[in-house]
Amino acid sequence: MQLAKIEAEQQQSHEICLLLDQEKAYDRVHPEYLRQVMLQFGFPPSLVSTICKLFFETHIHLNINGFITTPFTQERGLRQGDPLSPLLFNIAFDPFLRSIVNDTAIKGLQYRSSPTPSGLNLVPPPPVKILAYADDIAVFLHNQSDFHRFCARYDEYAQASNAKLNLGKTEAFSLSGRPHPTWQSFLSTQGITTWHDRNSPSAVRYLGFPIYSSIAQRNAFVNELILKIQHACALHSQRQLSFRGRVTVMNTLIYSKLWYVLRLTSVPQPTLQKLASIGYQFVTQSVFPKFKQEFLFVDRQVGGLKLLSPSKQQLVLQRKWLRPLLLSRNSGSVSTIVLYLSYSIQHHFDAIDPLFPLLFPSSRKGFLGRTNALNIFTNLFRTMDALDKSYQHTQPSPATCLQLPLSNIHRFDNPLPEHAAAGPSTPISPSSPLARLSHRSWSKIQVSDVFVFDSHRGCLRKKRRTDTSPFPFLIKGLEPPDLFSVKMTTARLRSVLSPHYALPVFNPTISRHQWNMFWTEDIPLKARDVWYRLLHNKLPCRSSLHNILPSVFVDPVCQICSSTAESSTHFVYSCHHKHPIWEYIWDTYIDTPFSQPALHSAIFSLNMPTVKSIYKKYLLISVPCLHPTRNLVFSLVPHLLWFSLCSP
């Protein structure tokens, strides 16, 4: 659908799409029609007979206000919710789909076979006539004749299967986004009154995905999505959830609406940042001091919470489209996705290979290559730009090298800043055409504009003044040997893009195994949250509160002993009012002698001491039953002992 819309927008064509509404599509399937279709497909008669008995000879009783009615037989229709119903409906609907696809009189959306600016004569893929997912049907119409032909085909199908088309609820939209008054007036005479184009306030939706033709429609959809997520956050905020529970709810429940649409929908980066902020506020509500936002996205085994980042998750979801395209050369067959996607990339970006625009940003020519475009290419390009790519083991042919952008294999010894003219500053006169080339102009120049294949040497050489080139002044400007350092080896075919997100080390003394133990052991959730905040110095001790709100907390002094600044260590155990309690507990339950370094290592580095054997049985029974008290510090005591017992 997205690729078809891009094709129509670029051609400014007059094709439209109908989103059909079938009246009670599952309930109207006739049993005899389904039987004949299944037999025609070659299903065993015994299996067909069994399925028909299960679906069409069922006796049904109704419970009306406690009274059971007399039974009646279900004589038609597929039960919605039954796992077999979608499969049987697809079988019943397949003959109609085949009749549309095989009808040569229906043109649908045709991909143009016009040559590209570089002279590529690409073979267009087959026209797109109909898309179907269960009973959600999208029909592409080239002209009014297509509509009449489609209606004739549907009438044939309806007479055989008992189906019925509800034109009053059918939606139509312009594939190019342009208004088509002729189409609108024609469709209104046929009973189709719902019309969408770029002037409509909201986007039409197919399978839950928005199909927008303007920025205003995209913004309206995004704002609605944000409101839904905020409402879900407000609803679940009333639950008493731990940090890990909130992250799980956010990733799997609240964000699920977002993950679905991000597979195909281009969402601006500021919107993704706002959605990430909503998740951050939900996870850290009622927590002070706050964690840093980027900290939440780190894996739990290194001290984070593993909240999914919307901007990075959008890139991950593009794998479904990129993987078959990147691996298509290694497979014997080409899928439909690869066929249409490869053609669209080559045709719209004038690329000799569909991988060029994906690998080299300077090959993304035209409006579709912009990062803020509304099309599906935006997500694909963002994903490829975020990956680490290495060409160390790549051996491109000279023909491939000639098609590459010059900026991807040249290295300037003295590059100018982006706002200045490209090229070396001192040897070139300000009046020279070379000095007037901007960085954007440099990105448009290909290797073939400056280099040529030397058949005698079997390698590329720089063009001479006598060779034909659209940039003769560039060849002249390249002649001094000290201007550029040029290497045509594969090592120079490197595009170092944004590296993967580096995981910060919050507490280097805690190993991945210890973090894994911390999250998997049977520790009550509130106690784990307190301990977790303590490990990251996010407990509301007096010194932290004084640094954040000095006007409210005028000094960092401990309110219990009134003698020392209350740091995290002082807050937990080093205060002389709390220290004897820890020492008594340690001497009672722990084998090793008590010391402040050992206690500090146990609490802050998860290096657990050994529990005395005489207390192991008692602790196994009693500690899981203990719950944290209102005192945050001493709620850690039983769970520290439990963690010590469970540690190897």
Automatic annotation (TrEMBL):
The record's InterPro entries line, in alphabetical order, gives: DNA/RNA_pol_sf, RT_dom, RVT-Znf
Q: Which domain of life is it from?
A: Eukaryota
Q: Which residues form the Reverse transcriptase domain?
A: 1-211
* SUPFAM superfamilies, per the entry: DNA/RNA polymerases
What protein am I looking at?
Reverse transcriptase domain-containing protein
Organism encoding this protein? Rhizopus delemar (strain RA 99-880 / ATCC MYA-4621 / FGSC 9543 / NRRL 43880) (Mucormycosis agent)
Q: What is the lineage of its organism?
A: Eukaryota, Fungi, Fungi incertae sedis, Mucoromycota, Mucoromycotina
